[in-house]
Amino acid sequence: MTSPSWAVKAWILQIAAFILTFGAPTVVAVVLLITRTDPDWTGFPAHAYRIAGWTAFPFAALALWAAHRWLGLTAAELGLRAGRPVRAGFFGAMGAGYLTMWLGLVGLGFFPDWVTGADGSPIGAMSAWDGVAWSARAGLVEETMLLALPMAIMLRLRWSWPAQLAVLMALRLPFHLYYGPAALLMVAVWCALLRYAYLRVQLIWPFIAAHVLYDLNVAVVPLGPLRAVITLAMLVLGVLAFASWWRERGRHSEQICSPIAIK
């Protein structure tokens, strides 16, 4: 049984990790939610936002190190090492991660743009280099800090699935508020499907790769055949992966994939 003091330390670490890695994006998202106007991102604000994005990498690494040394979470619990063979394969899981993002963002198409002149980025138009850096940060930092770490904590604490989903949504929603109220629908779909997929492999790397590829495909790859081929291939892999996991639902429970359950 995990002690109450361990739970307190775990959530302190999770909250600190969120503030250090997503504090600046959250502030920007809230400003955009309130003003509904794309601000002038030239000069100091743009530089400060980019610096905050780069510092998220070492802060995320530090948080994972603290989770291992301070909380005693193993690499398998943190999704950094496979505790068992990846069901549906690496690329199947990657396709599932891509599909979850695609479905979440498709829901935004049913709502009008919240921020005037927005182009899908909270900091306006980006260069190709900014797009690559943004995609790498989104994949590596978001999925380790907002999926792998909280799921490791909640599986150790044996929290119920509604509690797990609520926490994942609470972590993922704040810095996406620049989409307006529709962000709640996007995050709900995204987190529900992502949680389902992650519990079937409990390896974070396919979902990092999926997130990086999705954002690169949107921010860097020109609109055209290549973008369409990448999207179609990933969506097919994702559908096949979810279908495979759904067929197995009667033979496996979600906790089978947890290193805690197989100790």
Observed structural traits:
single chain; 263 residues; mainly alpha; 8 helices
Describe the structure.
This protein has one domain (4-257). The model has no long low-confidence stretch (mean pLDDT 89). The chain is mainly alpha-helical and 263 residues long. Helices cover 67% and strands 0% of the residues. The radius of gyration is 18 Å and the shape is globular.
Task: Provide a brief overview of the structure.
The protein is mainly alpha-helical and 263 residues long. The protein has helices at residues 4-35, 44-69, 89-106, 128-157, 161-172, 182-201, 205-219, 225-247. It has 8 helices and no strands.
- Classify the beta-strand content into a percent band: under 5%
- Number of distinct helices: 8
How many domains, in number, for the residues?
A: 1
Could you estimate the helical fraction of the residues in percent?
55-70%
Query: Pairing-aware structural class of the strands and helices?
Result: mainly alpha
Q: Specify Rg, calculated over alpha carbons.
A: 18 Å
**Terminal residue distance:** 14 Å
Shape: globular
Protein name: CPBP family intramembrane metalloprotease
Organism: Nocardia colli
Domain CAAX prenyl protease 2/Lysostaphin resistance protein A-like: 127-216
GO molecular function: endopeptidase activity; metallopeptidase activity
